[in-house]
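Run: sequence + manganese (II) ion -> complex structure.
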Amino acid sequence: MRLVRYQVGEAPPRWGWVHEGRVGPVDGDPFGDFLRRDTEWPLEKVRLLAPLQPGKIICVGRNYVEHAREHAAEVPTVPLIFLKPPSAVIGPGEEILLPPQSQRVEHEGELVVVIGKRGRRILADEAEKHILGYTVGNDVTARDLQRSDGQWTRGKGFDTFAPLGPWIDTGFSPADALITVRVNGEMRQMGSTRDMVFSVPTLIAFISSVMTLEPGDLIFTGTPAGVGPLHDGDRVSVEIEGLGTLENPVRAEI
Ligand code: MN
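>> structure
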């Protein structure tokens, strides 16, 4: 099942689901009890929003060997985690703004886990029960500021630096899906989730040994090799095989 947040005209945003290219409303709350109604709109007639307003956004650094190598960085022996603020979230088609403080903003296409059930010290074997589904994310990064600050809050935390969408897929399997990032149609990143250093269940066990995971929290699971710059006027797309494609325009903020 593919869950969305959507808007028709000026109507308030609401939960929905997508089936055969059409969107229908969902009554209730996908994190609790809910009911799917008949589909009523073709996808192109609705505005898809970010598929949720998340709680915590936990990100994993250097979770693909080839990406660690391209930065001449060590592959971590335990997962390297950091946070992005929920205020950075934007939806499909919304503009990524290049802040004037940075000369080098880069794309990082990533598989994103959506937590559905609260848990602390979750065992890897039990991790599945805490996942609502998966979505596509772009861990947009001001690389120059990430380097010069020595810690990552500013470089990762600007408004618009967490594009998400187009939906939460509750049936997706993360075992071996290709992540492809294109800028203006040109391929920049390509890698399989099979090549993650730490798997999704391992990440959930590790992170929940530090902080309680709550419904609506997200885990950005790291990016494959090939990160590169974004410029004013670009269009960046992140496609995950079997899951969906997230596309955003890029604009310089003055
Ligand atoms: Mn990342």
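>> summary
The longest helix spans residues 200-208. Helices lie at 65-70, 143-149, 153-157, 200-208.
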